[in-house]
Amino acid sequence: MFGSLRVRNYRLFASGQVISNVGTWMQRVAQDWLVLELSGYDPVALGVAAALQFLPTLLFTLWAGVLADRHDKRRMLMVLQTGMALCALVLGVLDVSGLVALWHVYLLCFVFGMFTAADPPVRQAFVGEMVGRDRLTNAVALNSTMFNLARVVGPALAGMMIVWTGTGWVFLINAVTTVAVIVNLARMNAGELHRQPRPASRRGQLREALRYVRGRPDILTVLVMVFFVSTFAFTFFTSLAIAAANVFGRDADGYGLLSTLLAVGTLGGALLAVRRSTRRRPGMRLLVGSAFTFGVLEVVAGLMPTYLAFGLALVPVGVAMITFMNTANNTVQLATAPEMRGRVMALYMLVFVGGNPVGAPMTGWLAAEFGGRSPFVAGGAVAVLAAVVCGFVLARRGGVRMRPRVRPRRWVRRRVEPRPAPELERADAA
To answer: What does the alpha-carbon distance between residue 184 and residue 180 come to, in Å, rounded to a whole number?
Structure first.
């Protein structure tokens, strides 16, 4: 289950990520709560902050993928992580000093988003360089496990710290934890990386990646499904805070607990993904099924009558959510040629995160007009519809195919060799 940790470079990367991700999740909770406090608990303001943070994804992610294919990914990550640490430091100083205003948060959300827009495609492509193709599925699953382990710890710590010390110190802690990633990236042995020949710098490389994806219906269908599910159903950054404050009347610690319960589910789903990575490749059936299940569970969670029931319902939601995310990520990475991986993963991250400038304000508007439960019900319904439509398209194209199972002949008077039974088949995503 932990084969990728045998690679020294990946161990350094993983240990730095565990520390940094705890700080990242602490900042996520503190930022949402700070916006609610500064805006008088206005759900629309929370949606605007999320939209500003994710807007740079639409502008810079694809170009970051081009740069990732051209340049040293390790050094790029060091620069990006330094920029994120500086943003957290500035916001923390403003908050602790009592000078912070809502427009400060909006501005730093946008600047921070510029760095986070470039980070995911570079980091996703760098995973393959650290462990090679044979361990790629396992490494992606382990990344998700570490991310969600931090997601369990970070929000709970942030909720308690906000009550005790305020939001400012949470931002300062995140700035310090980011240093762990930078230090471990610097300690890596560059000679042990599985680097692919870098394409020469030339015009049209971005269009080349778009043509490549357009010619791959399997990848294109996965990207369409990811866009609709992530844009309209993965709205927990804003919807959980709104539900905690406006539906159940809870404070920051109540919001942190909801985030932690969701993270318990995502951590469990991530561990299951690590286990699956030792047995078989991800399949299209798992991708469509997990999206459908996630949508149904999100609708059920949104209808829960009490705070406790709602929180407990978030656990299976988290399992289904991370199963879908991991399966989509692995499917796209394994189906993509290595020399195109940086640009294709940039496109993947664009559709995964780029819809947030639409989804986040929509979540705030739905909550303001129809109540804090409506984002969960509407988002879950969209996820179910996307799974059904994309599953039908994949089946028509042969991406999901099933042959009827034939029962072998029973024993008769003389022994007859049974015919081989055709088994349930999956078309390889590659």
So the answer is: 6
Q: How many helices (H) and strands (E) does the chain have?
A: 15, 2
Rg (CA), the chain: 22
Q: Residue 105: CB partners within 8 Å, gap ≥ 6?
A: 31, 34, 35, 38, 49, 91
DSSP 303: T
Both tokens of 76, joined, read 């790029």
What span, in angstroms and rounded, lies between the C-alpha atoms of 339 and 341? 6
Is the per-residue pLDDT at 317 higher than 90? Answer: yes
Domain spans, the chain: 3-190+209-401
CA distance 122 to 345: 8
Structure tokens at 339: 């020399």
Closest CA to 175 of 88, 91, 53: 88
Q: How far apart are CA 278 and CA 387, in angstroms?
A: 26
Q: What is the pTM of this model?
A: 0.65
What is the rounded CA–CA span in Å between residue 110 and residue 113? 5
Q: Which of 290-294, 325-329, 418-422 is predicted most confidently?
A: 290-294
Residues 239/289, Cβ–Cβ less than 8 Å: no
Per residue in 339-351, is it b (16+ CB within 10 Å) or e — as a string?
ebbbbbbbbbbbb
Q: Which CATH architecture has domain 3-190+209-401?
A: Up-down Bundle (1.20)
Are 74 and 188 contacting, i.e. CB atoms less than 8 angstroms apart? yes
Identify residue 54 by its one-letter amino acid code.
F
